[in-house]
Amino acid sequence: MLILDGMVMTTEKDEFVYHEMVAHVPLFTHPNPENVLVVGGGDGGVIREVLKHPSVKKATLVEIDGKVIEYSKQYLPSIAGALDNERVEVKVGDGFLHIAESENEYDVIMVDSTEPVGPAVNLFTKGFYAGISKALKEDGIFVAQTDNPWFTPELITTVFKDVKEIFPITRLYTANIPTYPSGLWTFTIGSKKHDPLEVSEERFHEIETKYYTKELHNAAFALPKFVGDLIK
Predict the structure, then answer these.
(1) Is 89 labeled as ligand-binding?
(2) What are the CA-CA distances from residue 167 to residues 104, 154, 188, 221 (Å)?
(3) 8 part of a folded domain
(4) Where does spermidine bind (predicted)?
C-alpha cells in the first residue's frame, strides 16, 4: 500500500483497475500512439500498462516527488518494475512546468495525479488543460483521473466543462476501485480527433489485463444518471 499525506494512493490488491483504465482507454483510442507522457504516477503502474502497447516507442514519466519513485521501486516492485525499462524516461520535476515547456510532442498524455491539494492543484486548472492541448500532436488524446461523484461532484463538473472548452471530443468514464472513497471513480478524456466510442474492432490487439476488456472500453462510458447529470 502507498499512502501520501494520509491518503491511500494505491494497493497491490486492486491497483490494476485504476492503472489499466488510465492507460488502455486512450491508447486503444489512438490509432498509433508512439510517444506517451505520464504526469504523476510515480508508483509506475500506468507506465507498466503503457508498455504493453508495442507501438509505444517512448514513455516519459514526470513525478514531482522522487521519494514516491524510490519507495515504490523498493516496496512495490510488481507495480514499479517497469520504470527501469529502456523505453522509459523518468524525470523528477513539476509536471505543470514540463507541460508548459512542451509543444506538439506527445500522442497521448495521462495525468495520474493525487487529489487537488498542494502542488497537485495546478493539475486541475483550465490553464493546465490548455497547455496539454499545446503539448499534444494534432490528433492527440489526454486523460485525467477526476475523483468520485459521491464526495467531489463539483470537481467533475468543473473539470469536464474546462476540458470541453478546449478539446472537441470530451467524455467521462468510470471504473470500480474498492480502495478509493465510494469505490466509483471517474476519468475525463479529451481528444482532438479520435472518439473513444468509435474505436474500430481491428484496433484492439491482445494484451494481458485483469480488468480492462474491449467490451468494457465502451461500457465504461455508460454513466449512472446522477453522474451523467454532473456533465450536462
Answers:
(1) no
(2) 15, 20, 11, 17
(3) no
(4) 19, 43, 112-115
